[in-house]
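Annex B. Sample input.
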Amino acid sequence: MNNEEMNIDLQPVEYDPFGGPEITKVIPAIEPQLEIWTACHIGGADASRAYIESVSMRMTGAFNRQAIERALKAVVNRHESLRSVFSTDGTDMLVYAEIDANIQYGDLSALVPQEQNEYIDNFIKENGLLPFDLVAGPLFRCSLFELSHSECYLTFSAHHIICDGWSLGIILQDLSRYYNAFISGGIPEIPAAPSFSSYADAQREFIGSIEYAHTEKYWLSQYEDSVPAVEMPLDFPRPVIRTYKSTRVDYALDVPTVLALKAIGIKAGCSFATTLISAFEIFIQKLTKQHDIVLAIPAAGQSATGNTGLVGHCVNLLPFRSSYNGTTTFTGYLKDRKSRILDSYEYQQLTFGTLLKKLNIPRDPSRVPMVPVVFNIDMGLDNGVAFSGLEYKLNYNPRQYETFELFLNVSGSEKELVFEWSYNCRLFTELSIEAMMSDFKALLSFFIQQPDLKIADIPVFRQDEIKVNPTENNTVEYPKEKTIHELIQDSAELYPDNTAVFFNGQSFSYKNINQTANQLAVLLQINGVKPGEVVAIALERSPEMVMALLAVLKAGAVYLPLDPAYPKERVEYMLEDAKAKVLLTSKKFEGSFTTSATSLYMEDARIRLPRYSFENAVSPVKGNALAYIIYTSGSTGKPKGVQIEHSSVVNLLLSMQNKPGITAADRLLAITTIAFDIAGLELYLPLITGACVVLADTDAAKDGRLLAALVKSEGVTIMQATPSMWRIMLESGDYNALPAKILCGGEPMGVDLAARLLPRCQSLWNLYGPTETTIWSTVKQVVMDNDALLIGKPINNTRIYIYDELLQALPAGETGDIFIGGDGLSRGYVGKPDITALVFTEHTLPDGTKEKIYRTGDTGKWTPDGDIQYIGRSDNQLKIRGFRIEPGEIENLLLSQEDISEAAVVAKDNRLLAF
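Annex B, continued. Sample output.
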């Protein structure tokens, strides 16, 4: 039930600031106000909503409505800031001589308590969505709801540009003093309020002082070496343009914990505030896995300048920099932070915007500069607040929009603390924030129980929720001894006349493909190819390319897939590094590559093939033999050859045959170069099933319009591509030319792409896996847009581990490094035992068993239902259109040029830029 449905008679406020009182002062806006005005001007209504300060009081007892209304008007007329608006350019603050403070009144006494609460909840939400007009004003509003003859609900809201958190406490104090005097028929004896104009004048004078110079020098010295960039573990990709929508989740800290924390602080000679700040600093350091962070702490200018009764925007954001070494204990950390925090408060009168300018920190439209996380303490907001004959409960109303990524506000008193976690909804899920809350509680418990334990040895997470592998029971029996070509031979026997490959209008049956591959395998053996030796394949996309791959496997050899379009130096390096014995290619590429491998041309082979047997021969190798070597980018400047066994591919194919699924009636469009490992799924998955490979030629594979035409003309039912290629397909304009089943992988899909693909297909699947674990390791059906953020669960006989930096398992919601174990693991890199040992490590599981696992370099987190959410890379590696690229490899090649002394490679808009 919304407020309109309840038919509450609200008395509207009619107010025109320019039709009434005169302007008595024009105060030049101070620097922090200019920053807020600029943020609201650029960010619009959402940004303005992020600056709403709002508190409510549920009051019980014999309240006097007229006295409360009189008290509010007196408070407003007492403080300059509450009578102010801003000039159209935001540079001046205009103060009126007096202003009417009308209260929005509503009588809810006819409603039952549940309806009253529902109405108030709706009102608080709607109030948080109503931005203030900084020019027209007023910049505050107040509402009073009568719940019964002995209960009311009062809400006061103001824009942060004229009212900070400290000011709210002053307003409540003054409100209670006036109220108490008015109900007794008197006038309160309250000293004149400090004027904001005097405070602003003093701030401007301070800028030219020696003390200001010392203050500026202090803060610049904190960042003279560097400015840490705090990277919170996000649940969603960061929007290009910063957003503000937020939600708040609260939890109360029990009294024993509060007392225990105070005791630790006292022992270290620290205040309770310093203890809480220090604990939260360590929490953020552990959460982000960054030992050097910046945490924003708001500091009230009223306290620093002796204007304790001042209402206005007087807060400065202090960027506290903190770090700890591996041997530091919490007690030691507290003692160290005590003096540093006191120093920071002593030098608090430097505006945050000024510091950003002095540090030359560029503005990024996607994020808050320097300080994404804020820790604030609002304890004692209602100190000195007492309404005669009334009891009250104070609530700090949650903002619907928030300036920062995460804002933790500590409210209440030292005996009843409430931690209010406000977070950006476009960056975090409530699950993750609840996990953070739980982890922070756990960290506080560790500090209480073992304050002298090394901080590095204290885990952040909840020990009782850890699952070593939430999907450890996905073991499925499969024929490990079988090879890829044997599975395809089985299909050829079952479906001899089915079309195995369709290419440029021609159909090739399973019988044709299999028999030709058999003959070519014999030819390879006659040319001296032995089991385990490497045969490189450099052919244009064609059915012969598919036959060549199968022939190498049937000969018991290992194929090295090459793209003839690749740079000559790169291809030659692969041929040499893999020790290729034969290069199976076309005369079109004769002389293109310098190699010790014997060249065998398909044009010559065609003439000789008819003389050889087309019957299936007994495979000279088993499932544990190598099937192929495929090269990925390397940071040293040279690519690395990944060695994959038959059984690993067989496991993948049989798992994918079931999920996402394929039948003999399907037609899969193959578009990927064989030099990219995912081509293995496009070619082999249909061929082990009796389905058809619709093979796109080289030109079509790069052209969205040609691919769309192929999908329509050839009845394609399944297609696998990278997100980049799917975007190209969508941009072709023919939205109906998409297959029924879409497989997407190689790079993050993105919610936006999922939203475009879902209505245009029958099923959408997100796939994830590095080359080193055989093409794909996880699969997720995308049903809703946000599913695109998930990479799902492991495929059969594959195990995923998410560990922290100490290789400790993490629970759901905690971001860590992704490790993969199971039957898809590569043997390692050709001729690179050191690098292999670095990323393929033997790890001891809690039950004592040992398993080889691969460090992917990716980060992710478990969801409660066992899915994995991909977060990003933990190293400098990039993915462009699905290809893994090491910037270091390109940088090293650039540096090898005589005229280049320095080089840097970055990704931008799905392109590589080199400087």
